[in-house]
Amino acid sequence: MNINILFIGDIVGKPGMDMVQTWLPSLEKKYRADIIIANGENASDGKGFTNKESKILFDLNVSVVTGGNHTWDKQQSQDLLRSESRALRPLNYPRGTYGNGFYIANTTKGKVGVLNLQGRAFMSPIDCPFRSAEWAISRIAQETKVIFVDFHAEATAEKLALVNFLDGKISALVGTHTHIQTADERIMPKGTAYITDSGMTGPYDSVIGMKTDAAINRFLFQTPQKYLTATEDSHLCGVFVKVDNETGKAVEIERIILPEFDRKVE
User: Fold this and answer.
1) Is 70 a catalytic residue?
2) Which of 70, 152, 177, 179 is catalytic?
3) Which CATH superfamily is domain 2-202+236-258 in?
4) In terms of pTM, does the model score above 0.90?
5) How far is Cα 86 from Cα 265, in angstroms, rounded to an integer?
6) At what angle do helices 51-59 and 13-30 cross, to 10 degrees?
7) Quick one: which of 78, 82, 158 has its CA closest to 117?
8) In the predicted model, what is the mean pLDDT of the chain?
9) Mode of pairing for the β-strands spanning 62-66 and 102-107
């Protein structure tokens, strides 16, 4: 028996939330999703995730929302982490940080462990994601072999290193954070599905979700610029993974982009 996992890539602001509300019901039916997971760290105006967005996503049958380095950018996000076990933050933040780093969800076909980790290369020097993963997997594996990892990281090398380290111990490792979907989806030699980045759900007439003028000025002048979420040319990006429930091994992985990008001008 297979478990169908649908993952929605980094949701950015209202444009991203609108895309999820537009496309998710049909995607759930198309892929016969047994569980839906979404990265929501940027869902609230481009930074943070609050009760407002969580209600919308959970009402759309999202089972778990993962996070990243922007998870704490709003005070309301911090309140949510204290009260909602299905809203995750990366596990490998220092001990004492509030919020959950993993969650075990029940589906009609069995349990699915969802683990959220954050990279350290070019990011905050937090605890080791490799050692944190080992500890969490040892706990989750007591209840299920189906384990899905959202690795929120900047460096492709760190993502590839972690999936090779965990190959065969988890069902899937999906990269998030860069907001640019990669075309390297595959199943690793020992049965773990992998993609370096699932892509962004949000406005693509932008610089990874930010209005282009503000983003360009940040590079031109090397000074802080106000973060303004872009609004145009929205798309939904994500990943579908099919996992053998008995072995925990992936049997299929597929990238999702809706609507597809124009690649030529008529």
Assistant:
1) yes
2) 70
3) Metallo-dependent phosphatases (3.60.21.10)
4) yes
5) 43
6) 20
7) 158
8) 95
9) unpaired
